[in-house]
């Protein structure tokens, strides 16, 4: 499944236009509160720049949609394909999922070292490394390198993780 | 004069020299690893400079940047994988030379022309930055608003393949830059009562995510092909492995011309090294006695693109040092490192930190000389470096990126930001939206907004309202210069020609 370039651009601009309108009419009013009676003599209100950039984005996209998509020249449609093929999509989806798991769950719960160890094994496996020996040795060496570099070199303590902290606490209590 | 000597002394202490050496070695090796771009390598190092003495961290960073620029040409020449977009022009003649077994010759020519171009632009930087900074001291908020606005427009319209995507990217960066407390009223903006966001988005996690993680994600989506070292073969003839004096002499005019072109382009915000490399390549081909050799393994072609793309690296610090405006991503990274050390670059830095500025100049020149010496060593071991397997390299890059992001503020949120920006950058790359304007927009929005608001405030107390800006000579002169500069730039940038050259 390859998406034609012109369709891709059309959907991209339409999607971005909707997002921009959402930004202007929902996000800005709900997340920036201008002080009361804030007039031009006090300088510009805090929401001014956000609205300015929001409207500039909207008009840029609208202009592009009209000139680039509606009034498109036939020559430009010749452009073949880009964006995601099914294989690339599947592959990048898996990789991104692992990255999100690592940054939002592994590090916070398992700690940096254990989380990174598991992350490197999973990711290297997904990228085609099937040798068990390398899958174990490489993350070990990497973690040792980071540990000695950070703890010994810079005295930086990387996160230990909630689960490990709880285990240590329960061991200490007992 | 005292400041100059003090600066040289600071940059040539044994610690600083060792730092430059380490930076160069690391930069050259990282730059020569396929998939690790120069900016990616430097972005990974920036947070660690916080833990080093400024006069170890900053020379190391400068060395690393110069080293990685040369390293990235090695992959371009040997395996047709440019480490930076600018090195794509080097592929055009470097790779055919490598296929003829003359990879060593091409790499040596790339090294000599890189060092020449780099030194040329550093000398220009030394002379131009101080002069421009002394002019910039007379600038007020209206001039700064104009200058930052012009830079934002230049960067957005000249980076990438289409203007609207560049603009979109810069606007996105500006919106991200507004997250946090309003600088004047301290009202939270776009934070949704999320405490972590009130401090604003950190520059370093954003840089690491957008430059290093997004690039790693882009590379990892590709089916992994083994980089077979057997495809690299070098001729055994001595003449094919060295650059003779007559060869160097014949390419010298091209190198000088390309260095000048690269320096000029580098001084303009947003144009960057890719355009410089392709323009210099086109110009070299146009003026060459043997244009038919271009694209088939011309040493002149390698020299032109390398001299020009490296010349950009020195001159793009001119707007950074003179006005506090980073002209491209390399300057933004260096600016980030200085901010970490508590030094804000701009015209006043010449008054407040003159010794540090002269030390930077001295470090740049020293780094060039050492780059020349170390580059020869790297050329010999390049066979091993270019064959590092990606399936192990990228997981390691992501772990080091996370550790670097965490190290700066000790915040898990920063690690999450790194990956969020990595994914955002990856999606932008997939949609052909350039990421550099987003970073520059993010960096410039506080300067732009603050000066715009002060300008409007000044206007409200003036008889002519906002029209008072046209009564300021500095504003009018700047406006005139920018109008002329825009006209020249637009005329010079003929993308179709660049594409034609690229496609050949």
List the helices and strands and how they pair.
The complex is a heterodimer of chains A (174) and B (504).
Chain A lengths: L2 E2 H27 L15 H24 L3 H4 L3 E2 L3 H25 L1 H15 L5 H23 L7 H12 L1
Antiparallel strand pairs in A: 1-2
Chain B lengths: L1 H10 L2 H19 L5 H8 L8 H26 L8 H12 L3 H34 L4 H18 L4 H16 L1 E2 L6 E2 L5 H4 L4 H18 L24 H23 L4 H16 L11 H17 L1 H7 L5 H12 L8 H4 L1 H32 L4 H20 L2 H19 L5 H25 L12 H20 L2 H9 L1
Antiparallel strand pairs in B: 1-2
Helix pairs in contact in B: 1-17, 2-4, 2-17, 3-4, 3-10, 4-5, 4-6, 4-15, 4-17, 5-6, 5-13, 6-11, 6-13, 6-14, 6-17, 7-8, 7-20, 7-21, 8-20, 10-18, 10-19, 11-12, 11-13, 12-13, 12-22, 18-19
Q: In order across it, which strands form the biggest sheet of chain B?
A: 1-2
Q: Kindly state the percentage of residues in helix of chain B.
A: over 70%
Strand order of the largest sheet of chain A: 1-2
Instruction: Write down the Rg of chain A.
Output: 25 Å
Q: How much is the average pLDDT of chain A? A: 82
Number of helices of chain A: 7
What overall form of chain B do the CA principal axes indicate? globular
Main pleated-sheet profile of chain A: 2 strands, antiparallel
> Which residues of chain B sit in consecutive blocks of at least 5 with pLDDT less than 50?
226-230
CA radius of gyration of chain B is 22 Å
Number of strands of chain B: 2
- Secondary-structure class of chain A: mainly alpha
Number of strands of chain A: 2
Poorly predicted runs of chain A are none
Biggest pleated sheet of chain B: 2 strands, antiparallel
Largest interface: A-B, 68 and 59 residues
Query: Termini distance of chain A?
Result: 59 Å
In terms of structural class, how would the helical and strand content of chain B be classed? mainly alpha
Order of SSEs of chain A: EHHHEHHHH
Helical amount among residues of chain A, as a percent range? over 70%
Overall 3D form of chain A:
flat
